[in-house]
Amino acid sequence: MTTTTKFNPYLMSNFAPVSKEITTNNLEIKGELPRDLSGMYLRNGPNPQFTPLGKYDWMDGDGMIHGVRISGGRAEYRNRYVRTGGFEVEKDLGYAVWSGRLEPPQMNNPYGPYKNVANNGLTFHNGKLLALWEAGLPYEIRVPSLETTGPYLCDGYLDSAFTAHPKIDPMTGELIFFGYALDVAPYLKYGIISARGELLQITPINIPVPSGPHDFAITKNYTILMDLPLRFRPEREKQGLPAWMFETGVPSRFGILPRCGNNEDIHWFEAQPCYMNHILNAYEFEDEIILYGCRMSSTYWYPGTARDPNENIPRMYGWAFNLKTGAVREGMLDKRPSEFPCINHRFVGRQMRYGYTSRMASLRPLFDGIIKYDFSTGRSLSHDFGEGRYGGATTFAPRIGSIDEDDGWLLTFVYDEKEKHSELLVIDAQDIMGEPVARVMLPQRVPYGFHGTWVSEMQLIASN
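^ thats the sequence. predicted structure below, dont judge the formating
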């Protein structure tokens, strides 16, 4: 198979991969890093090591983690590939052997039909940093070195796909996850890993058609799974249609089950058709489950399948599911396009006041600022990156010893397209409209990527 990616936008400008893995100490800092901000900011993203085969999509590149360690007002940078099994095969051969998600699975490939690129999410649990890709196993990464240990098997008991967005309960320390399959039922599995890394349960959840959910939510006592109208039907390909299509008119389904429940305990609620890549948070309030996320009225995965360019735009949205009556309330909270929602992780599954999203600058995944939502007052404020400066996902790092929910910093990589350089912004979350308190100038370009996480200094020490 030859490449068709010569003029692919996801291989150009700051979407293009970098070739070097480097480590640099004593980075230049404009402003001053807070003395009570100590730990490591990490962000995952696609970075193909060789020229891709076929139709390249942004999500196809090999995972690369970029990290900035902050301590004592100083910063150091390093980046490393996630050395998955597929990465090592291609490295040894010296060229790409897998195509991506826009091509049919390579059933005759001697190395397997697809490659786990481990390029999407990151989570830190039980002293382990995990690089995530929803169609395969997590990969364990050592910190702060960012060297790959290998697949994370949870003491040998984990053998299914694992979401790129697991949730960690801030009170129990449990890691809650799901995984989906496309080829054989059950198409959805739900699991819990204890704070000590023990697999407590994994149970099948029945859905009628593979729908490939990307995210989910938890509350103090419940888990919310999604079965949305973006569905996978391979028989469509015989008609010259994509296997993945948004099925207009099919309701969205939200399944709510007790934390340790199973398929018999789940209660499915129907809502207006939509798709949602990322959820902000959920919590219990009286008889209802409240859910916030970046909702799209429809979606498309393949070029040329869009009916309306606006249908693929995410906007902040809310739902309320009444556990007693079965009623559903829903509505848009903001007309501005935004994605990559985050909160102070101490409030995962609990009622929060604040949430943050990356503000979209165009139909492409370019983000020109951060929106801070105050769900108590209904107001929002924004931080602008400046002309020709674009970022990605934002991560909240709480101040050491903080009490207030928004007492901390928002961290994100930003690329200046005029000056052709990357930096890490450190923004006071309580003064989001103000200038960054610090700008960490990075020694090489950091391509636009996906999700990040903050690992505190105490967590770094405990992991070694």
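The radius of gyration is 21 Å.
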